[in-house]
Amino acid sequence: MGNTHPGATSPLGMVSACAYSGAYPTGYGRYAKNTEGVPEEMFERTQASGFTHFQQSGTGAIRKYYNYVRVTPMVQPLDDLGRSWALHDERAEPGYYAANLDTGVRCEITVGEKVAVHRYTFPDHPSARVVIDLSCGGLAIDLGRTVPLRAQVESMGHGCARGTVVMEGVPLSIYLEADTPGWRQMVWYDRRLIPGGTRLDFDSIRQTTLRPFGLLFMGPARAGQTIEVRIGFSLRGCEQARRNLERECAGAEPAFERVRAGTRQRWRDHIDRVQVDGGTPARRTVLATALYHALIKPCFADDESPFWPTSGPYAFDICTMWDIYKTQIPLLRAIAPDRATDLLESLIRVCEEEGNFPIGYRMARGADRFFRQASALAHTALADAHALDRSGIDWGWALVHMVDDLRRMYGEDFFEHGLVHPITHTLDLAYAHHCTAKVARALNDRRLADDLERRSHQWVNAFDPATGLLRDSEFYEGGKWNYSFRLLHDMAARIELAGGDRGFIDKLDRFFGYGAEPVRQPGISPLPAEMALGYALNRFEGLNNEPDMEAPWAYHYAGRPDRTAEIVHSALTWQFGTGPGGLPGNDDSGGLSAWYVWASLGLFPVAGQGLFLLNTPAFARAALRVGDEEFVIETSGHRETPIGVDGLDRDPPPQYVQSATLDGKPLHAAHLSATDVHRGGRLHLRLGPEPTTWGHGIRPPSHPFTLAHSPATPKE
């Protein structure tokens, strides 16, 4: 399960909206919380108790799940609020979601960047209503509920209302307009109307004292009558929410089609930045879906930070930096470079305000920043951006924060001992030191760069020379085999430590199951003993986890890009499909989908290195619009292959790159610099059914440390 949802979103926008059942992990659907095996069903049908705003995309057990401001069209009494009705005739497209409720109400939702517009078509009924529940939040699973801390709600009359609810320490404000001519408008509390009441104030709410509350519009409905509800959102108060609503709806009444068309055009502008020729319909559908999923998060709420007063970019839902830094951020840097720069600006500001770069960052206050998962990952994105000469960032100030962050959390132990447990943090911190050294050297701070580079080569402390694998330790969502094939900055030394090319390739072959018996996959609610047997195989999990996304490309560094071609081809063919279960693991805020996009193009970005590894693309021709330039990947000898259950009755054999040219000149290496890609050009790959020696001799660059290459002269 990819853990995505079909709700309405805008590219990298602040707001999403979707049917709400309370299921895990987005609030949509019918599955219970699950981290191993096939997910259990929480509900027998696809259902909804209303439509909520702000959903995660592709995450797992992150503990905070949003689903704020539930809007419910009803023909039942208010006592039935919270009841779920079956969904029928669902329809989803970028920026739009629609479904019919059992009650006979047709529900449609679209969103802009900071607004949502609901349109409900009612059956004939003497007392229809639209209920806004401002107390709603989280999921209907154990420990999944979100409880507001404070709230204010005001019914202003004439179809207008406003309110602020403090959720997870963040003040979420709304300004609402409803086209409900002749309907009554009022506030309610604990499913009871408050006649004559226009305002609710809650100074302190606890789980034991929380009762639902909100707004209501009620009146007779004719068959086919349409009600439109427009909501502007802000993290800086109701007045800014009102301005956001006015800016995107521009006084249009009704505004639904206008907002929908604007969001559709924004999606078209983004999706069109990757063009492909050829491919089966299923493969093209999966690629477009992957690109769409890769552009939902992070959420950008410009000028909306509730934690600092100044204007500028504010990004949240960077929920899985340990996934997206490898694949999605490089994709944003290519096709949405301004937003990639805004993301880095926002991360620098978070570091300023909170003392460290976040590993994950949601719309929430507090120190819950996922530090167990990883350390110092923003440094890779900053190093890549600096190497590409991205303007708009004060690099001297960025370097100050990069250096300071290396001493936070696990960084202090790394500084003192050169080794940290969990052992993967040793790799994180060593790599971050290398990335920071690159920026320091470019800024002419040679003494700092040398010191950082020296410490960066303490990655070797993480490995056991006797096995060529990582030392025994605790591991997050994996084991030492999963993490032992990460792409380090000195892969030549890493391979030598594993026994040279032959020893390294043998370990990779074992990890990927060459010559091994097929593995039986776990089913629903597998027993711990069954899972333990699976983990003990020390095998590739099929793109189910962050370290496995880059492991297939480690073969490049040992001179075997043909092995990479076989594994990536198999993954693209069998692990992705067009159905609801079409992803092999959590999409993790677009990290996995971005992997699919890159792999389909025959590219893999090595984050922090300014490097792309080359492989067989899945399409005969592709064009990547990089800023104002275009990078074209074209092939000769390409063969179309179906995917998944698309009528396939046998394994299609992989194809291999047999030779290559870049802008008409022979290319003998299986890698390119990021500069080559970003400045545009034409890569031609000649494909065939058998591997050749192409890419075997010239390895991707490694960066051994020697003081000789950088004089330790004090910076003047």
Name the shape in a single word.
globular
Question: First CA to last CA: what distance?
Answer: 56 Å
Quickly give the structural class.
alpha+beta
The CATH topology assignment of the largest domain is GH92 mannosidase fold
CATH superfamily of the largest domain: GH92 mannosidase domain
Compute the CA-based radius of gyration. 26 Å
User: Per DSSP, what share of the residues sits in E-state strands of 2 or more residues?
Assistant: 15-25%
Give the CATH class of the largest domain: Alpha Beta
Which residues sit in consecutive blocks of at least 5 with pLDDT less than 50?
708-716
Roughly what percent helix?
25-40%
* Sheet with most strands: strand arrangement: 3-6-7-8-9-18-13-12-11-16
Q: How many β-strand stretches?
A: 31
The residue-averaged pLDDT reads 93
Largest sheet: 10 strands, antiparallel
Note the topology:
Blueprint: E1 8-9, E2 16-20, E3 47-48, E4 50-53, E5 68-74, E6 85-93, E7 96-101, E8 106-111, E9 115-121, E10 125-133, E11 150-157, E12 160-167, E13 170-179, E14 184-189, E15 192-193, E16 199-202, E17 213-221, E18 226-234, H1 238-249, H2 256-271, E19 274-277, H3 281-294, E20 299-300, E21 315-316, H4 321-324, H5 328-335, H6 337-354, H7 378-387, H8 395-405, H9 411-417, H10 424-442, H11 446-456, E22 463-464, E23 469-470, H12 480-483, H13 491-497, H14 500-511, H15 528-535, H16 561-574, H17 591-601, E24 603-606, E25 611-614, E26 621-626, E27 629-636, E28 656-662, E29 665-666, E30 671-673, H18 674-678, E31 681-688
Parallel strand pairs: 27-31
Antiparallel strand pairs: 1-2, 2-4, 3-6, 4-5, 5-10, 6-7, 7-8, 8-9, 9-18, 10-17, 11-12, 11-16, 12-13, 13-18, 14-15, 14-17, 19-26, 20-21, 22-23, 24-25, 25-30, 26-27, 28-29, 28-31
Helix pairs in contact: 3-17, 5-6, 7-10, 8-10, 10-11
